[in-house]
Structures are given as C-alpha cells and as structure tokens.
Amino acid sequence: MEYRQLSHEEYSDLESRILFEDNHLLIVCKKVGEITQGDKTGDECLADNYKAFIAERDNKPGKVYLGIPHRLDRPVSGICILAKTSKALERLGAMFRNGEVHKTYWALCCNKPAQESGLLEDMLVRNEKQNKSYVTTSGNADAKLAKLRYRYLCSTERYHLLEVDLLTGRHHQIRCQLSHMGCPIKGDLKYGAPRSNPDAGICLHARHIRFVHPVKKTELDILAPVPRNWKGLPEQFLH
C-alpha cells in the first residue's frame, strides 16, 4: 500500500510530537484542529499522517496498522494513544471502558472557580443535532452521570488554569461541566466563552495520562508539553 509523501517539514513535525513508542503503542501530542481519525470532512487525520510517517521512517512496503482506542475532540490538544497491534487495541479499548486509564486535562478558563477544588457530579444529556451536551435533571431518561475533579493551579492576567481529573467519559464532559460551574474554557464559544481563539481551537489540553501497558504490564506515565500559545503562565507550568 502506498501512503502520501510527507514533506520534510511534515515529517519533522510528526517526529517531534512522539511522546512514547514501542512495538505495541504510539503515543503522540495532537495539535488543535487535527482530527484523530477520518470523518465526513475528508480532512487529513492524525492516524493517517502517522501511518505515512511510519511507512517512510521504517521503509515499510505493506500496510501500517494503527488502531484508535480513544479520541480527542478536534479543537482539543494533547496526549493521544494509537495502537500498533490489534492485541494492544483490544486491550486498551477494554481499559478505557473500565476506567483503568487515568487522564488529566488542563483547562484555561475565563473565570476563576468559587472553590479552588472540588468534585463535579452532573447529569448530562447529548443533543446530537447540535453536537452539544447539557446539564439536566436526574429524571431525564437519556441523561448520563458525569464526574470530574478539578483543582485551581494559577492565573494569568486574564485567565485561570484548572487541572481536571476525568472520572467518566461523557460527550464534551469537561467543556459542559466547567461551563455549568461558571468557568467556560477560553475560546469555547459553544459553551459560553465570549470570543474565539485565533486558531479556532479551545484551551483544553490532555496534559497527563497514566496506565499499565496493555502488553508489557509496566506502568506508563506520559506528560504532554503545554501549547506554545498559552501565554502568561508562570514558568513552572510551561514544561
């Protein structure tokens, strides 16, 4: 199978964003605006670009396998896991479903929360047509329980950095719950931010992930660098 030819700049960029790789896993840092896998837009996706990268780097004449056990929304950046074998994909899928993959996000918010830390528990319902989730009452038959913990880290001149531990995996969960708390994410017009970001993304970043390797059974602890356009954060938060 032939993959598209990457330019030197594309190849270098993809290579620089690899956070971990072995025979079973490829863990990379997704950019704002990238889609994890192909959709109806027909835009180039992260998985296909890394297939082309591996084919070129390893001089592979056949098909490159990359399975997708989880996705990040298009406007979100940060850690994305790709499976290089079907065994790893199957096991990772089960681990995500069972809550065995511990994910921490950073969110740059428009307002500082009233309490500097807390547990948010809300019932969310998804509107498919709007591609948006809403907090609703527990009596709604379509609603699902969403849980996260947040912690205030610091402030810039205009925005406030929260660390979020995701305890369930609902549609647009962090965006919806933080907005409902009165802390919409910078750039997230859909959930109440007053203005968009120049890159059309939102300041939500999959910062840290921790899990047991699905094949080797060793613990992996992966950190993704903070996006360069998050200006004004104290030095200790920029690594």
The value of Rg in angstroms is: 18 Å
Count of helical stretches: 4
Order of helices and strands: HEEHEHEEEEEHEE
Termini Cα gap: 39 Å
Biggest sheet, in brief? 10 strands, mixed
Number-wise, the strands total 10
Strand residues, percent: 25-35%
Task: Indicate the low-confidence ranges by residue numbers.
Answer: none
Task: Give the helix proportion (percent range).
Answer: 10-25%
What is the mean predicted local confidence, pLDDT?
Answer: 94
* Apparent shape: globular
Give the helix/strand class: alpha+beta
Question: Would you mind describing this structure in some detail?
Answer:
There is one protein chain. The protein has 239 residues and is an alpha+beta fold. It has helices spanning 8-16, 46-57, 86-97, 173-180, and strands spanning 18-21, 25-30, 77-83, 102-109, 117-127, 132-136, 144-155, 160-166, 204-212, 219-223. Strands 1, 2, 3, 4, 5, 6, 7, 8, 9 and 10 form a ten-stranded mixed sheet that branches. A hairpin with a 4-residue loop joins strand 5 (117-127) and strand 6 (132-136). 31% of the residues are buried. The mean pLDDT is 94.
List the SSEs and their pairings:
Elements: H1 8-16, E1 18-21, E2 25-30, H2 46-57, E3 77-83, H3 86-97, E4 102-109, E5 117-127, E6 132-136, E7 144-155, E8 160-166, H4 173-180, E9 204-212, E10 219-223
Parallel strand pairs: 3-9
Antiparallel strand pairs: 1-2, 2-3, 4-8, 4-9, 5-6, 5-7, 7-8, 9-10
